[in-house]
Design a protein that fits this description.
The chain is of the alpha/beta class. The protein folds into 2 domains: 191 residues, P-loop containing nucleotide triphosphate hydrolases (Rossmann fold); 65 residues, no CATH class. It is built from 10 helices and 10 strands. It has a 7-stranded mixed β-sheet, with helices on both faces. A 3-stranded antiparallel β-sheet has the order 3-2-5, covered by helices on one side. Helix 7 links the parallel strand 7 and strand 8. Helix 4 packs across helix 5, helix 4 packs parallel to helix 6 and helix 5 packs across helix 6. The structure holds adenosine-5'-triphosphate (ATP). The site of adenosine-5'-triphosphate has 13 residues, from helix 2. This is NitT/TauT family transport system ATP-binding protein. InterPro entries: AAA+_ATPase (IPR003593), ABC_transporter-like_ATP-bd (IPR003439), ABC_transporter-like_CS (IPR017871), ABC_transporter_ATP-bind (IPR050166), P-loop_NTPase (IPR027417). Keywords: ATP-binding, Nucleotide-binding, Transport.
Length: 269
């Protein structure tokens, strides 16, 4: 791999995904009410099954892109579609789930009640809720802690609960906004491995992941979206064409170091 061909130019920004087109953004601008131009002319397609990390300086509009995809903010100009629907329609069908850095668990509810809450709000019958919660708690290795309260869990465990809660709605698109930013390095790496395992088990699930950490982006991604400082634009999309499953042997490989160097060099320009 060389830095000359690693990045697709802005006009060639087609993904190399495993599935059908999931998200289409065309000439997207976002100007907030106070006049802040958060995004300018964002053009991007995202295919089903990708794991895409968004990297860029603070304030470049990464969270804003997520809010537009989730239908939590309205675009100022341009088009955005999720599986041919508006973001709000897609969210209503529970096709989209969020995980934030702050785990947002209800402190007075047990782990399993926290995981079941979104299903309860959607009117899913109790037996089905329980089954689904057990399934996702097993996925994140927390079955034995189903009755614990959040305050009895470590930061990494709270994040696992938060991921389980998002997975319980079986989303097609999982949006993760700096989820591991507050965790120590060892916990972070084990959660990266668990997340990749979960993602690999479901070929149709797409993960969009914001991080400031180049190592994390290279380790996790099928693609890295590099963004410029505000107003945010997509400056390049990098296809990290390294095989899965990935493990510590990838983290310590020469190829990994080369990818990190390439991405870092790009981000400095
Ligand atoms: N509701 C809002 N009203 C006005 N300006 C906003 C609003 N939300 C975000 N902004 C501004 O829009 C720009 C992009 O913000 P955004 O949070 O999307 O960036 P980011 O890349 O996610 O930042 P960070 O990496 O620091 O989390 C910033 O200048 C921010 O201050």
């Amino acid at each position: 791999m060389s830095s000359q061909h690693a990045f697709a130019s802005e006009t060639q920004r087609e993904t190399t995904g495993k599935g059908r087109q999931l998200v289409a953004m065309k000439e997207l601008d976002k100007v907030y009410g106070n006049g802040t131009v958060a995004l300018s002319d964002v053009n991007m397609t995202i295919n089903e099954g990708e794991f895409i990390c968004f990297l860029g300086p603070s304030g470049c509009g990464k969270s804003t892109i997520f809010k537009l995809i989730a239908g939590l903010e309205e675009r100022t100009r341009g088009d955005i579609e999720i599986l041919g629907m508006s973001p709000k329609e897609a969210r209503k069908q529970s096709d989209i789930a969020f995980v934030f850095q702050d785990h947002t668990l209800l402190p007075w509810c047990s782990v399993i009640d926290n995981v079941m809450l979104p299903l309860k709000l959607r009117g899913v019958p109790k037996q089905e809720r329980l089954q689904e919660a057990e399934r996702v708690l097993a996925l994140v290795g927390l079955s034995d802690h189903r009755k614990s309260l959040p305050r009895h869990l470590s930061g990494g465990m709270k994040m696992r609960v938060s991921i389980a809660r998002a997975l319980a709605s079986r989303p097609k698109l999982l949006l993760m906004d700096e989820p591991f930013g507050a965790l120590d390095e060892i916990t972070r790496q084990s959660l990266q491995d668990e997340l990749l395992k979960i993602w690999q088990q479901d070929p149709s699930m797409t993960v969009l992941f914001v991080t400031h950490n180049t190592f994390e982006a290279v380790y996790l991604s099928t693609q890295i979206v590099a963004m410029t400082a505000r107003p945010g634009r997509v400056s390049a999309v990098l296809n990290v064409d390294e095989p899965f499953p990935r493990d510590d042997s990838f983290r310590t490989s020469a190829a990994f170091s080369q990818w990190v160097r390439t991405v870092s060099e790009h981000m400095q320009h």
